[in-house]
Amino acid sequence: MSTDTGQLRYTSLLTFLIVCALLLTARLGYLFLADASRFPINTVKIAANYQHITRKQLEQVLANHLNASFFSLSVHRLHNDLLSLEWTDRVYIERIWPDTLKITLKEKSPVAVWNDALMTADGELFNAGKEQTDSTLPRLSGPDQQQTDVLQIYRKLSKLLSMYGLHAASLQLRDNHAWELSLTNGIQLRLGKRDLEKRLQRFCRAYPVVFADKPEQLSSVDLRYARGMAVLWKTK
Questions:
Q1: Listed residue (82, 122, 129) closest to 101, CA to CA
Q2: Dihedral (Cα; 54, 60, 61, 62), 10-degree rounding
Q3: How far apart are CA 81 and CA 30, in angstroms?
Q4: What is residue 234's DSSP assignment?
Q5: What CATH class does 112-233 carry?
Q6: Side-chain half-sphere CA neighbours of 14 within 13 A
Q7: Phi, psi of 3 (to 5 degrees)
Q8: DSSP 235
């Protein structure tokens, strides 16, 4: 065996032993830091408004994570588990040395009911299939994937109505692409497929002169005419 070959084998063996030693040290270090009895999480601070997510729900999620140590706790997994709660919008998690976990949770804020679900301002749907009891939210409906478009139209029409002291309760985009708007006083407006704001403004201008003194008698108004409107009165 040549001197060079022996030197190479010695260097390779030494390198292997050093790598093994480093891996063993890292493993022992991890086990030391992952020991929950040495580095427990003793305090959990939660900042949440608890409007729809209860503290019990949060405690149930945390129960699956707090057996870890301060260092080995998977913030990513905990973050995802908290985000999976129906009403969760955003979650912030912070480790505070030496034994504290701080969680800030913000709930989703619905702006409307879309078909059978709640909708956020950016069009996200949640809480689908459940009874939506918040009467303060406008009711929007239409074909699938059209919620952002309907919300945008609703906001434009609502702004126009507010200038005349009127308020929208619901807006529907029908399958034939025609729009129907309901006011909070129960009046239904058929707007058709185009010129929605122009047609609605025609009604708003006529309302104080023609309808304001007897809104409870008015059932619906068809605004799909070039210059006029068709009125349906309630039968006694």
A1: 82
A2: 100
A3: 24
A4: P
A5: alpha beta
A6: 6
A7: -65, -40
A8: P
118-165 confidence digits (pLDDT tens): 999 999 999 988 877 788 999 999 999 999 999 999 999 999 999 999
What's the CA gap between 131 and 138, in Å, rounded?
Answer: 14
Residue 24 confidence (pLDDT)? 65
* Cα→Cα distances 177→46, 141, 196, Å: 47, 12, 12
Nearest to 190 by CA among 209, 203, 208: 203
* pLDDT surpasses 80 at 10: no
Least confidently predicted of 19-23, 121-125, 183-187? 19-23
Residue range(s) of every CATH 3.40.50.11690 domain in the chain: 112-233
Specify the pairing of strand 188-192 against strand 218-222. parallel
Cα angle 215, 217, 218 (rounded to 5 degrees) comes to 65
d(CA 44, CA 93): 10
**Residues 6+ away with beta carbon under 8 Å from 171:** 138, 139, 140, 141, 150, 153, 154, 157, 179, 180, 181, 182
Prior bond of 110 cis (ω within 30°): no
For domain 43-107, the CATH class is alpha beta
List every span in the chain annotated with CATH 3.10.20.310. Answer: 43-107
How far is residue 105's CA from residue 82's CA, in Å, rounded to a whole number?
8
